[in-house]
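Budget justification aside, the reviewers requested a transparent look at the raw inputs and outputs of the sequence design task funded under Objective 1. We therefore reproduce one unedited record. The lines immediately below are the structure tokens for a 231-residue chain.
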């Protein structure tokens, strides 16, 4: 039995994993889906303004403490990759597996801002213009999305190297939006790194909604899976 901690991407909450959670639970696993600080419906403006990457890493660490989790599988979607990296580096060996689901994989001193493309940097700036601290969701998409704390996109990550000791680290590349993805160069980098397992999914960025069965199958595939393409 595994314990999954699911961390959403920018503007999203725990609800973004709703199609996947029951599939993991029916397979007999424990699942915790998080809504990060500043993204909760009742968070006030001061909470949103103060939230940064450290805040979000602490959200994960508090869950590990509260639920007494010692062998977590952390799954981060998009911006959530920043969060699970920071949390795993500080988790004192309580993370057994990292899965970056079409997500950033930062190195020490990088940020979501520095790791993404100019297209997304301009979107962050435009989205934060009205408040200076909260990035409005891009037009369209799920109405449950909320303004995202700008500081969490900007703050650089500080890593001790402990994250490199996580026994299994995986990157899932969603290939169905290759005209816009900011992760193509990251996929190339990780394919050349023997410490990483790289998987391809032929979906758009929100694979949890588009192909929940494929996402769940990948998460349930276990440590025996190497580099793979899921069709």
């Amino acid at each position: 039995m595994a314990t999954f901690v699911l961390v959403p991407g920018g503007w999203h909450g725990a609800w973004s994993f709703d199609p996947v959670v029951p599939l993991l639970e029916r397979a007999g696993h424990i699942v915790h889906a998080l809504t990060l600080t500043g993204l909760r419906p009742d968070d006030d403006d001061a909470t949103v303004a103060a939230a940064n990457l450290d805040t979000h890493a602490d959200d994960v660490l508090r869950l590990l403490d509260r639920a007494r989790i010692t062998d977590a599988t952390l799954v981060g979607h998009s911006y959530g990759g920043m969060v699970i990296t920071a949390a795993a580096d500080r988790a004192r060996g309580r993370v057994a597996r990292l899965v970056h689901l079409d997500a950033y994989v930062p190195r020490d001193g990088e940020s979501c801002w520095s790791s993404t493309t100019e297209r997304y940097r301009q979107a962050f700036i435009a989205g934060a213009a009205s408040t200076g601290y909260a990035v409005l969701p891009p037009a369209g998409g799920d109405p449950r999305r909320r303004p995202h704390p700008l500081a969490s996109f900007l703050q650089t990550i500080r890593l001790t190297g402990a994250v490199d000791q996580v026994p299994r680290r995986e990157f899932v590349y969603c290939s169905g939006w290759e005209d816009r993805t900011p992760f193509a160069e990251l996929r190339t980098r990780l394919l050349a790194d023997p410490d990483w397992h790289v998987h391809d999914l032929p979906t758009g960025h929100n694979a949890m909604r588009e192909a929940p069965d494929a996402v769940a199958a990948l998460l349930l595939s276990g440590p025996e899976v190497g580099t793979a393409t899921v069709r």
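The first helix runs from residue 21 to 26. Strands lie at 3-7, 30-33, 72-77, 95-101, 134-135, 148-149, 168-174, 197-201, 228-229. Computational costs for records of this kind are itemized in the attached budget.
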